[in-house]
Batch of 3 targets.
Target 1
Amino acid sequence: MKFRIFILGMVLLLLTNIVSAGSQYGTIDVYYNDQLLPGKEVVKPTLKIGEPFKIKIDLKLNQTSILFVKICSLRVGTPYEVITGPSEFDKKLYFESLDPGTYTYEWTLKPTGEWEGGTMPVNIWYQIHNVGEDKPLVQGEFTVAYPYISNEHYQGETPTSEQPASENQSTSKKPSSENLSSPASAPAFSLLTGILALVVIFLKLSRH
């Protein structure tokens, strides 16, 4: 049974890591606990429930752009909670106009315990528009970390929670595409949504 769970987990990892983090419009450098991840490397740590870890991105924009970005997972419950950072988990950051340059966003998260004894990826989703245009120039999503969450509870010090900055972001003149789910530029996640319900049921039943 554990072997079958492992195989399903590896399939999910492969499906969530096929979207590139770079294009002609910009590039993204990704860090896990302040360590730069080269290329498409995905870290696979073992974490305790409540154990903090950091995800950071350096996003370089090659032109003046509208930007959406969020840290998320597979849209199943709330596997992680943001302790500190610019946005809550699975909530979009929105920037109406950013000049060309490099922008840094960092989140400190912890596993909530919903997936104890299992694995759940931590993803970065992003979308870039020309200023004044609703149609995105590029959209992507990729996996940064694929933690195994043990059934132990973290006993160490946890950073103090902060109010996510995303709640104070301007909501005026947002492109209509912000409220869309997954455009045709991200077919991997349309496929993933179709099999996710079966995987979740299988994993939950396998724990009993």
Target 2
Amino acid sequence: MLSTTRRLRSTRSLAVGLLVAVAALLPLTPAHAAYGAPLPIQQAIYGGVNNAQLLARSDGTLQFDDGNTKYKYYIELCRVSSFVAPSIRVAVNGVYQYTLFYNVGSATALCPSGYTATILSAEVNHGGTVANVSFTLVASDFINQVYRERTRTSTYDNPYN
């Protein structure tokens, strides 16, 4: 039979061993960021004579994670009368990151009858703190033999900063 001191040491050693094993496993569990409520993204660019002609529009959502390093977007980009296919320039914290391009898509409720939208979506791990994300919709017209590029920018602040 073990003495009380030996039993106490054995119990203590077992407890310490279990704690070390649990602590070693904790970093292996991936951290899951929670995304906040979707923020609406809605942009439209008009051009042509008297700026009355819809060139392109985008509609969708943007969500930031509570860890301040990731965001995800879902955008429908509709080409209506843009001379060159529209695009969306994306900037994080005021610094250009990449461009999303229109590609022949499918009919959606966003586009007028006879026009199509491209679905653009991704989850982006920026790798650093995301204070804000800007989307610049780019479309163009060609009036009186003059090419004009039109832009509209919307910036969305991260609510977790």
Target 3
Amino acid sequence: MRSMLALALMGVPAAAQAPNPLAGRWTVDLSTDPAKPYTKTMVLTLAPDGGVTGTFYDSEIQAGRWKTDRGRTCVSFRTTDGAGPYHSAACLRGDRVEGQTWAEHRNFLFNWNAVRAD
């Protein structure tokens, strides 16, 4: 801590923080039939204070949070379709994301996977 303070006082910039591997653009596989692919985009912006903004399934992320703990980085957030809320949670696993979305007003829970978008 003292060395970082000393560097700051001398005008030496601190090392850039490494980007969070969960942040960015993802292609989410929402297919219910493997013969009929159905994908949507998820964009995650992860703030240093644990906040999350972005989009999921063409909806703005509301009240999102992220955390790295117990060897994994995960995100939780809410979106809406105008009729009710969708609660999503997902964790980074290797180079992909595994998640689920719950919509109480539609009486469903859906498991999904995502890969890094081009």
